[in-house]
């Protein structure tokens, strides 16, 4: 089967893409709005874009009506944010923050996680996360103002928080981190099933 993407409905294309590109790591993004109200939301279009300089990427899709999400608006306004890695023990709390809340709702409180101030930037992060990146906006590539159009956010990592018990410098123990990823549909996966290829 060969699929011409211009002939596919939006929701069908979404399912084809997320069902193929997996597992996808989850960026649990902490921001502050103009009034200083914390916002916390997960995004699974997330990866490393560069090491030197250290740059990460997240893509934030528009809402169904084409409106930009609160996280993106906050990043545009403040130019800083945090990305906390989601470990298995936090996955249910992360899922709570994936719902669409009103602007004045603090998702940190709704999920019952600690909202701590970042050290190098004026933002906040999840205190229970074993790894957190403090990020300063580099640029945004806007793909439009229609439903599910992406906004590719590139950001410089200015600091990394790592719990001492998961790192043997400079290696992070992936099993102790126990990160989860997004799979297709409503499913998630872990990285506990590891294997080695000898070349």
Plain-language structure description:
- This protein has helices at about 10-20, 70-80, 90-95, 105-110, 175, and strands at about 25, 25-30, 40-45, 45-50, 55-60, 80-85, 115, 125, 130-140, 150-160, 165-170, 170, 180, 190.
- It is α+β, with helices and mostly antiparallel strands and about 200 residues long.
- A 7-stranded antiparallel sheet has the order 3-2-6-9-10-5-4, with helices on one face. The chain has a 3-stranded antiparallel sheet with strand order 1-13-14, with no helix packed on it.
- The radius of gyration is 17 Å and the shape is globular.
- The two termini are about 35 Å apart.
- This is Flavin reductase family protein.
- GO terms for molecular function: FMN binding; oxidoreductase activity, acting on the CH-NH group of donors, NAD or NADP as acceptor.
Keywords:
199 residues; alpha+beta; Pnp Oxidase, Chain A; 7-stranded antiparallel beta sheet; 5 helices; 14 strands; 35% strand; flavoprotein; FMN; oxidoreductase activity, acting on the CH-NH group of donors, NAD or NADP as acceptor; Flavin reductase family protein; Split_barrel_FMN-bd
